Amino acid sequence: MALEAKARGKLKQSAIGLLVFFTVAVFGVACTKTAVRPNPRVTLPSTAPDNLPQQLASHFSALEQRHHFTGYVLVATQGSVVFERGDGPVDLSTQKEPTAQTQFQIGSLTKQFVVAAILVLVDQGKLDLSVKIGSYMPNLAEPARDLTIHQLLSNTSGIAAAPFAEGATQQLLGPATRADLLATFVGKPLRFEPGSKFEYSNSGFLLLGVLIEQVTGTSAASFFAQHLFKKAEMTHTFLPEQGDFQQIRNQHPGDHFAVGYRRMPSGTLEPHQEAFDMSVIFTAGAMVSTAQDLFKWTEALYSGRLFSPHLVDKMATANLNYYCYGIYERILTNGMVAYSHSGGIFGFHSYLLVVPDSQTTVVILSNDENQYIGRFGEQLAVIAAGESVPLPTAITPKPRDLAQFDGTYIGQYLGNPIELELEAERHQLHLVRPNGSKTPLSAEDKDRFYAQASRATYTFIRTDKDTIPALIFEVDGIPIMQLQKKTQ
Q1: Number of helices and strands (H, E) in the chain?
Q2: Quick one: 293 exposed, middle or buried, by C-beta within 10 A (0-12, 13-18, 19+)?
Q3: Selection from 202, 249, 252 nearest residue 260 by Cα
Q4: Does residue 16 share a domain with residue 148?
């Protein structure tokens, strides 16, 4: 999807679309409460209500009705699946509905598997997180060779952008060798002093994938299969080595693959094939998996079955901007600590959340790249923990209330200026695009709005004096940036 922004300078809407596919970069507003961090391997007694499946089904129906859900949702607690449901076509040509074994591309959920592979090698004594990567890759160009593994894992390295991401100085469609891939970013100037700030990075995880291959002497796909998928009993998951997704489907004719689509503002689904070969996307987001396998993954990962318990703790320790290693720390209702990440790639949208205390897993896989999730996954986790969450209801704001949101909002993202123009017309708030077209925004609650066929939400900040000085732009419920309202 294209991030709804009027961009100036070098920032263009097409590049922003790729940014939203492959990243969820968080400002410090991502979590506003504090809590005692749980031990990811300790499970507390269940507080889930007896009618939990019915409650989860009600909330799924609300998502389905309001946002035309297509894909599969799975919720598990205490090691058992308590709710799962598929809806929409796996393939428009067959009209088959998805199952727990339907295979989806999972985009940036791939990154936590990269983290796990690195920590397996740390556990084996083959890597040290504090050591510069050039110690293991002596031919790697500067300045990348001077970055530590920790900086790459925590997105604090400042490494240049990947060849498919916003800000890239060189694009590469592929097929590509590992040398071709690295040549597009490792020798480029750093974006900031390593360790000084957070910036979501795809290129850092591409470099980590090549590191895994050079240290082990085997492909990342083979290492994942042997040390991660096999141990977690994931039988329908793999890392493609090359080809586009159509070619990958053709190579696995017996498997149940979803076809990737994007929902248009009209409500129709259109096929959307990626332009990039998977040898370019690689360990930044090329993996294929299922809802059932991702549930198995969380069970294996957080129980310490894949590597030593202290390394599980390390993976789940928040660094800058609440980013751990490959996952975000999120603070939910009543200080409940969760770890989540989403993934977006052409035609697909994925989401995975874990609450270690209650051993709750929420998996959402969609073959609509514009599928709205918002805070739906977090709400399911809260319900599973025994907390009450009101069902979403349609809201029709009054014209005088909408008038407060009317105006221009300005800010910056990755050093580039961003401007959003919002216009209130009677009972409707619109996002006004640079070409003058208008996208209607629907109210999720008094100060929170969303657009159909979009992963974005707009949450307005309201002061004690009932004024609106700013808004927070979110993707998949994660704050991306805060924009200030322009004064007249």
Answers
A1: 13, 19
A2: buried
A3: 249
A4: no
Tell me if 239 is assigned to some domain.
yes
Q: Pull the structure tokens for residue 44.
A: 């507390």
Are residues 157 and 183 part of one domain?
A: yes
Q: How confident is the model at residue 159 (pLDDT cuts 50, 70, 90)?
A: very high
Last residue of a domain, one of 391, 413, 439: 391
pLDDT at res. 168: 62
User: Residue 125 pLDDT > 90, yes or no?
Assistant: yes
Q: What is the pLDDT of residues 269-298, one digit of tens each?
A: 998 876 789 999 999 999 999 999 999 999
Q: Helix 376-384 vs helix 52-67: angle between axes, to the nearest 10 degrees?
A: 170
Burial of 169 (0-12, 13-18, 19+ CB in 10 A): exposed
The pLDDT confidence band at residue 8, using thresholds 50, 70 and 90, is very low
CATH code of the domain in which 78 resides: 3.40.710.10
Task: Give dist(CA 325, CA 335) in Å, integer.
Answer: 21
Is the same domain home to 67 and 207? yes
Sign of CA dihedral 432, 434, 437, 439: negative
∠ CA 200-205-208, nearest 5°, is: 145
- The model's confidence at residue 42, banded by pLDDT at 50, 70 and 90, is low
Specify if 144 maps to a domain.
yes
pLDDT at 469: 96
Looking at the structure, tell me whether residues 316 and 422 fall in a common domain.
no
- Sheet with 360-366: list strands edge to edge: 80-87, 71-77, 360-366, 348-355, 337-345, 328-331
Task: Tell me which of 391, 408, 429 is where a domain ends.
Answer: 391
CA angle, corner 368, sides to 223 and 370, nearest 5?
Answer: 110
CA count, 13 A, side-chain hemisphere, 480: 23
Q: If you average pLDDT over residues 221-226, what whole number do you get?
A: 98
Are 9 and 96 members of one domain?
no
Structural domain boundaries enclosing 417:
1-30+393-488
Q: Which amino acid is at 451?
A: A
- In whole angstroms, give the CA distance from residue 6 to residue 156: 28
Answer yes or no: is 36 within a domain.
Answer: no
Angle at 338 between CA 164 and CA 379, to 5 degrees: 95
88 and 1 both lie in a single domain: no
